[in-house]
Design a protein that fits this description.
seven-stranded mixed beta sheet, globular, mainly beta, 130 residues, single chain
């Protein structure tokens, strides 16, 4: 059974860093684009970064560009999100998601929209506060 499990969230002061991990079981992630989304209180879930199956292509939302870095280790069947320069507005539940096989290539050109992803983790809370 496919399972995605996020970890690494927590409470951090503004300007601090966190590294989120997304570990997969029941499936090999090698063939799939993987994305990180986040949902802040009272807001819709939004894509913030995605990475192609090979890791050669990445996308970032403007709000995190230059501060967050997505990476993957297919040997470990995991994807990571390094978050530096955290701001209070980064406070949210962060989710990793796997693109469907049908959309895994196209979604990189579609901005990794939510409807292209068919499997989700349970989320990890990130709180940025002094």
């Amino acid at each position: 059974q496919l399972q995605l499990v996020e970890s690494g969230g927590g409470l951090v002061q503004p300007g601090g860093s966190l590294r989120l991990s997304c570990a997969a079981s029941g499936i090999t992630l090698d063939y799939y684009t993987i994305a990180w989304f986040r949902q802040a209180p009272g807001k819709e879930r939004e894509p913030i970064s995605c990475i192609s199956s090979t890791g050669h292509d990445t996308n970032y939302a403007d709000s995190v560009k230059g501060r967050f870095t997505i990476s993957r280790d297919n040997a470990k069947n995991a994807v990571y999100l390094q978050m530096n320069g955290l701001r209070p507005e980064d406070t949210a539940v962060y989710y990793c998601a796997k693109a469907s096989l049908l959309m895994t290539m196209a979604t990189m050109n579609r901005g990794c929209v939510e409807t292209d992803f068919d499997s989700w983790g349970q989320g990890t809370q990130v709180t940025v506060s002094s």
